Amino acid sequence: FGLFLVRLDIRQDSSRHAAALAEITDYLGLGHYDEWDEQRRIEFLQVELDNRRPLLPRDFRPSAETAEVLATCAVVAAAPAASLGSYVISMARDASDVLAVQLLLKEAGLRRPMRVVPLFETLDDLNNAGPAIDRLLQLPGYRMRLQGPQEVMIGYSDSAKDAGTTAAAWAQYRAQERLVGLCREHGVELLLFHGRGGTVGRGGGPAHAAILSQPPGSVAGRFRTTEQGEMIRFKFGLPGIAEQNLNLYLAAVLEATLQPPPPPEPAWREAMDRLAQAGVEAYRGIVRDDPRFVDYFRQATPEQELGRLPLGSRPAKRREGGVESLRAIPWIFAWTQTRLMLPAWLGWGEALQEALAAGERELLQQMRERWPFFSTRIDMLEMVLAKADAEIAERYDERLVAEDMRPLGRQLRDRLSQTVEAVLQLTGQSELLTHSPETLEAFSLRNTYLDPLHLLQAELLARSRQRQNEPESPLEQALLVSVAGIAAGLRNTG
């Protein structure tokens, strides 16, 4: 393409790069790259990055998967610099993930600098983000190739799917803190790229509050973030609204740069550590450890149907498997359709109840009043709880879920009620969003139209599952309309 309005990023999963290099090293008789430890990988990659000879012989015939990776790198090398931004590595874990992409791009003939951006997504990977970047910046060859800022992408969607929003939010915050300190020590500019979605379960929320809740020093005159799905249309679909949202971003970045929030006090950190630990245990206790959960999820929500409907730009799954194999969007989207909103709140109730039972209400209130990070989390939690509706979720169970699975649904709805009670106890309100009557009124108005759509959808799902339907059948079309209508009514859905 000739004229460039915006730069496009390239994105690929780290496992695809490792598999390509494993095939190459095996062909060259060097062993299996995917079986090497991190130190051996780095040594090999450094030697090859500094080597002037090609890595691949002309008669190398790669598999289809490796050929696709190499072809992508060839396109990057051939494209004008003005057309491309960063090469983002999904599910990055270690320093070698970045060096691997640099080697593959070098082999494809890229001779200009390009930012290679690790995206840390799971809880463990976020915790390892600091050590991984520190190791990279200590490599002299890497520092020579690094022209411009060190860009790092923070994953919100998959970290929340992995550990729940309580632990994920705290891991994201601490990872950013460590990266800010490390890059300052190394004398390197840091550019953080926030991979947010539209909903609370994917790091979404009002942009102004989200930016001001970042760690001090992490917003240094610039802020890079994703806008996804229907939120692009809601925020930038009309010139006046687009200008207003850009003004909000600009104002927040200026404020966070010139008047950054204070660092959290030691007592706040310790409390957040406890909340995160309790949250991840409660979340994984259901999502990972309850043997009924995956079957219940697939019966109670339209997760199976979402893969058939012409929605979204990517497959619903990365691979075969349970919840861990799902992409974050259908994971959030499916629970939103039934109004249980589970990914956004599961884990918070147990964490807050444990803290309140330990007599920490005053400490939590202090954190909410003086720490933008914590206050924003609680505000977003309160908003999503106000949108949840246990009675609607129960209607889906009655129509779609097998009798022996229904106790789990009742258990989840009980947890929803307990989470609401914990938030009310913390905020001192008798009802959610009492402080924002306009928002409550808007929710009430939308629910007038949403409630019948939910009942229709539950019936359509039941009929669809009783027989096979063609993609263009009236039943499938009606199901699609119900999905789109509910998504539009709930706004920040996926």
| Percent in strands | 5-15%
Succession of helices and strands: EHHHEHEHHHEHHEHEHHHHHHHHHHHHHH
- Using only C-alpha atoms, the radius of gyration works out to 24 Å
The parts where pLDDT drops under 50 for at least 5 residues are: none
| Biggest sheet statistics | 6 strands, parallel
> Structural class of the secondary elements?
alpha/beta
Say how many strands there are. 6
Q: Provide the spatial order of strands within the biggest beta sheet.
A: 1-2-3-4-5-6
Q: What's the number of helices? A: 24
> What is the overall pLDDT average?
90
Shape: globular
Helix content: 55-70%
Q: How far apart lie the N and C ends?
A: 31 Å
Write the topology of this structure.
Elements lengths: L7 E6 H14 L10 H13 L13 H15 L5 E7 L4 H13 L7 E6 L2 H5 L1 H9 L2 H6 L4 E6 L1 H7 L1 H22 L3 E6 L11 H6 L11 E2 L4 H7 L2 H20 L7 H22 L5 H8 L2 H4 L21 H10 L4 H4 L2 H10 L3 H10 L1 H16 L2 H11 L5 H22 L9 H30 L7 H17 L4
Parallel strand pairs: 1-2, 2-3, 3-4, 4-5, 5-6
Helix pairs in contact: 1-3, 1-4, 2-4, 3-4, 6-9, 8-9, 9-13, 13-18, 18-22, 19-20, 20-22, 21-22, 21-23, 23-24
